[in-house]
Design goal:
By secondary structure, the chain is mostly beta strands. It has two helices and eleven strands.
């Protein structure tokens, strides 16, 4: 586990909460800036270990702002401040064969978005994540196969693709895919069938997120009224 003091954790939590309050309050000052809050889950795996499947479940929560631009305001730039949990999980037949990797990040995603008819929105962008805590529980099988060449990186730079649908009023449902652009760790793998010829693998975070987002000052969808021809 990273040697991070509880005081630092409280400071990070305080910054996240302060940012949330500021972003919520900002829409009252400017109609061009949209403030929002997202709450959801991450389904994650680590590419480059010996386990497959998005079995690790974690939180994805934090505030964001959206700044529309363009002639019809269909385009926007979004900036988020997230607490995001990633990692890997493999349930073995016993505790000694179970593997867990929990990584807690403070993340700042930046996306360019396009919103069509105020009901569907898609975006692409990048995210910088700072590792604030991690815990790894290994097993005998894992230890016999892997030798760490580098320590776990303190940062994670990822590419993001995102699509959201308007469910009701100011509530949106979003599906996001995120993948690390750089390796978070390098390991040397020893094949039990060929122990004299180990090979190198690079580990990357692979994340699917399902989130609900409430946009505080978004306009309602106005129904178009049909004009009645009076015959004049």
């Amino acid at each position: 586990m990273l040697p991070i003091m509880p005081v630092l954790k409280r400071k990070i939590l305080f910054l996240v909460m302060t940012a949330a309050v500021l972003l919520i309050a900002a829409p009252g000052q400017s109609q061009k800036i949209l403030g929002a809050m997202s709450v959801g889950i991450n389904l994650t795996q680590v590419d480059g270990d010996i386990f497959y499947g998005f079995h690790k479940v974690g939180l994805n929560v934090g505030p964001q702002i959206q700044v529309p631009f363009g002639k019809n305001k269909n385009w926007s730039v979004s900036l988020e401040l997230l607490y995001s949990q990633k990692g890997s999980y493999h349930k073995g037949s016993t505790d000694s064969t179970t593997y867990r990797l929990k990584q807690d990040y403070a993340e700042i995603p930046v996306l360019i978005r396009y919103t069509d008819k105020k009901i569907i929105s898609a975006g692409v962008g990048f995210s910088y994540g700072q590792l604030i805590n991690y815990k790894e529980t290994k097993n005998a099988t894992f230890d016999s196969l892997f030798t760490y060449q580098t320590g776990l990186s303190n940062s994670d730079i990822s590419v993001i693709a995102d699509v959201s649908f308007r469910l009701w009023y100011k509530l949106w449902l979003g599906l996001r895919y995120q993948y690390s652009m750089k390796s978070n760790r390098t390991v040397l793998v020893t094949d039990p069938l060929d122990p004299k010829d180990p090979y190198t693998r690079y580990q990357y975070n692979n994340v699917i997120s399902l989130r609900l987002t409430w946009i505080f000052n978004q306009e309602k969808i106005m129904k178009s009224s049909k004009k009645v021809d009076s015959g004049e």
